[in-house]
Write a structure and sequence with these properties.
Layout (H helix, E strand, L loop, with lengths): L2 H11 L4 H23 L3 H20 L2 H21 L1 H22 L7 H19 L4 E5 L6 H4 L3 E5 L3 H8 L9 E5 L2 E7 L16 H11 L4 E5 L6 E5 L2 E6 L1 H12 L4 H14 L1
Parallel strand pairs: 1-3
Antiparallel strand pairs: 1-5, 2-4, 3-4, 5-6, 6-7
Helix pairs in contact: 2-3, 3-4, 6-8, 6-10
């Protein structure tokens, strides 16, 4: 019997249950998320250090280096708590994303119909307003609330609960009005509050010195929530979006509309919207 037949016989002898397969899928998902977490955050270098320490620990265990084993054991016991404290913001965002994904799955399985139709007109108004503000080089900061509620930030501003319009956005961000210095928070397709103060970024030293206070506030806001934050530069009129701590720039009215629709509108609404647009264009 050659080695190929041995492998085939071993594979035939394995009869995993449904729970074993589910266990493997869950473990693979967790490992994938840990790798993504290490790659996409400042934890990358730290994870490399942990791998090196584990290798040293295994070598010390094989060789019998008792002092090294004792010291590394103490480091590992304290290190777990230290990691939770150091990477609390990143861990919180990751858990929020898991909750967001899980709740959406439960809602769909349960037949819950969370209508986002109010966002369809709101997105068009936001894009038209940003285009007008950009052409006039009027600074603006618009936070689109998603699953993470921003109640503590709403309290720093003025609650409006107003239907969005191009005129209202223009009035809010006009530099002679009391509400222009701060951010607008959108909730459920409405202008929920204005003149809200946003958190600073976790590490401003990594942000380009070319970016002003609005862009920095947008990055800080996106680091602490799942919100989509739109910025209109007061200096250049450029339109940018901050999400997950990253800033993307150079948006036009059309590319902004497409991006917001992809991020905000549900999978149920987007096909209907596309169908309506095609029908409108055909007529």
């Amino acid at each position: 019997m050659n080695w190929v037949e041995v492998i085939i016989n071993v594979l035939k002898s394995i009869k995993p249950s449904v729970f074993d397969i589910l266990d493997i899928i869950v473990l693979a998902f967790v490992i994938l998320k840990v790798i993504q977490f290490a790659r996409d955050t400042r934890a990358g270098g730290l994870f490399k250090g942990i791998v090196i320490l584990l290798a040293v620990y295994l070598i010390a265990q094989i060789v019998g280096m008792r002092v090294t084993l004792f010291l590394l054991g103490k480091v590992f016991s304290i290190g777990i708590l230290a990691l939770i404290v150091i990477f609390q913001p990143e861990l919180r965002r990751s858990i929020e994303k898991v909750g967001y994904f899980g709740w959406n799955m439960i809602s769909r399985l349960g037949g819950e119909n969370t209508s986002l139709s109010s966002w369809v007109s709101a997105i068009d108004v936001i894009c038209e307003s940003c285009d007008n503000l950009s052409s006039n080089t009027t600074g603006a900061l618009i936070v689109i609330e998603r699953e993470t509620k921003l109640g503590e930030l709403v309290e720093t501003g003025v609650v409006l609960n107003a239907e969005p319009s191009i005129q209202l956005f223009g009035t809010i961000f006009f530099n002679k009005t009391p509400l222009h210095d701060g951010a607008v928070i959108m909730r459920d397709g409405m202008i929920h509050a204005a003149a809200c103060f946003l958190p600073k970024p976790e590490n401003e030293s990594h942000i380009s010195s070319e970016l002003g206070s609005r862009h920095r506030a947008a990055i800080g806001m996106s680091e602490n929530s799942d919100a989509v934050v739109i910025v209109v530069s007061e200096e250049t009129g450029g339109i940018s979006i901050a999400e997950n701590g990253e800033l993307s720039r150079g948006y036009t009215k059309d590319t902004l509309r497409k991006t917001l629709r992809d991020k905000i509108l549900s999978d149920q609404i987007k096909p209907k919207l596309k169908k309506a647009e095609n029908k409108k264009n055909a007529s």
